[in-house]
Design goal:
The complex is a heterodimer of chains A (115) and B (111). Chain A is 0% helix and 52% strand. Chain A has no helices and twelve strands. Chain B has 111 residues and is mostly beta strands. Helices cover 0% and strands 51% of the residues of chain B. The chains are: A mainly beta (115), B mainly beta (111). The interface between A and B is medium-sized, with 22 and 24 residues.
Chain lengths: 115, 111
């Protein structure tokens, strides 16, 4: 069975500092990995996805993630955060091509960017 | 670009009542997924439909049922509501082999 572990439930950072949100997965089959962002009282927005190919994936809002098969990780990074990045971030895995099968989510990481 | 539409956006019900949530997928998307996100929790998969047939089933209570109609919209029917059913219910849609896109969710409060 697939599972996702987000190692930090809360990450506070100062504005313009770099941030890394950690995600580890387990799966017995090919994996497709995703990061979603949820702003307060809003839905889930796709930040980026890894399906195949280059292990460094660039997404929206300046975020990027690196797929590391040997470490079964898919950590999310941003070199310089803004106040507007304050949100909850969910890592997810699917065993369907492109994410067309059900998504299994991690518990989420709440990112708080302070001035 | 058109997005996934969910209605209603907010719903308040009493215990033991019924509720129906609706989802309108992105045009030309034939797969619909339902997820439940409890307060402070991660989204949990409930059920999915592909071409109007149930394609996968997760942790959906027997009190809940869902279907996908000929126009590809989907409805989640919830009966004998319990306090624990209070949650944000997301619908997502995709086309074959493609990424899921989520709607804004329906926030259900059971009193």
């Amino acid at each position: 069975a697939q599972s996702v572990t987000q190692l930090d439930s809360q990450v506070p950072v100062f504005e313009e500092a770099p941030v890394e949100l950690r995600c580890n997965y387990s799966s017995s089959v090919s994996v497709y990995l995703f990061w979603y962002v949820q702003y307060p009282n809003q839905g889930l927005q796709l930040l980026l996805k890894y399906l195949s190919g280059s292990t460094l994936v660039k997404g929206i809002n300046g975020f990027e993630a690196e797929f590391n098969k040997s470490q079964t990780s898919f950590h999310l990074r941003k070199p310089s955060v803004h106040i507007s990045d304050t949100a909850e971030y969910f890592c997810a895995v699917s065993d369907g091509q492109g994410g067309s099968e059900k998504l299994v989510f991690g518990k989420g990481t709440k990112l708080t960017v302070n001035p | 670009a058109a997005g996934v539409i969910q209605s209603p956006r907010h719903l308040i019900k009493e215990k033991r009542e019924t509720a129906t949530l609706k989802c309108y997928p992105i045009p030309r998307h034939d797969t619909v997924y339902w997820y439940q996100q409890g307060p402070g929790q991660d989204p949990q998969f409930l059920i999915s439909f592909y071409e109007k047939m149930q394609s996968d089933k997760g942790s959906i209570p027997d009190r809940f049922s869902a279907q996908q109609f000929s126009d590809y919209h989907s409805e989640l029917n919830m009966s004998s509501l319990e306090l624990g059913d209070s949650a944000l219910y997301f619908c997502a849609s995709s086309s074959p082999g493609e990424t899921q896109y989520f709607g804004p969710g329906t926030r259900l409060l059971v009193l």
